[in-house]
Design brief:
This is HIT domain-containing protein. 23% of the residues lie in helices and 21% in strands. The chain is α+β, with helices and mostly antiparallel strands. Bound molecules: guanosine-5'-monophosphate.
């Protein structure tokens, strides 16, 4: 399928330094920062630095180095403070996934029991 990327999305602006963020980790291929509207005591977003809109776009178009670098950064975040008792990863995509920001990201949620995987809706 065709994957379009909007370079004016808010995470692209964060990557360009046009909008501040609360950085947790920065590597060659990834940036991790705290979500502005946290849904759990730990709520960190991890994004690749390249222009990918969704997980499927990223995993089909990115280089092996970008993919490895991104997932290693996710692993580092998931080993960080506050996630000792477990965590949940979420990657929303497109309309049915209710993706708000069209730059691929994973949410790392932790710090309390997170309940069922989905609520009705
Ligand atoms: P999505 O629904 O796309 O998976 O999640 C996007 C997330 O980005 C939301 O949890 C939202 O709170 C977060 N977010 C939106 N704008 C900003 C921002 O400017 N800074 C930060 N740190 N998070 C943001």
């Amino acid at each position: 399928m065709q994957h379009d990327y909007d370079p004016e999305n808010i995470f692209a602006k964060i990557l360009r330094g046009e909008i501040p963020n609360n950085t947790v980790l920065e590597t060659e291929h990834a940036l991790a920062f705290r979500d502005i509207r946290p849904q759990a005591p730990v709520h960190i977003l991890v994004i690749p630095k390249g222009p990918y809109a969704t997980l499927d776009h990223f995993c089909t178009a990115a280089s092996d180095a970008e993919i490895a670098g991104f997932w290693r950064a996710v692993g580092q975040v998931c080993e960080g403070a506050g996630v000792e008792q477990g965590f949940r990863l979420i990657a929303n995509a497109r309309e049915h996934g209710l993706q708000e920001v069209p730059h691929f990201h994973v949410h790392v949620l932790a710090g309390r029991s997170l309940g069922p995987i989905l609520s009705a809706g």
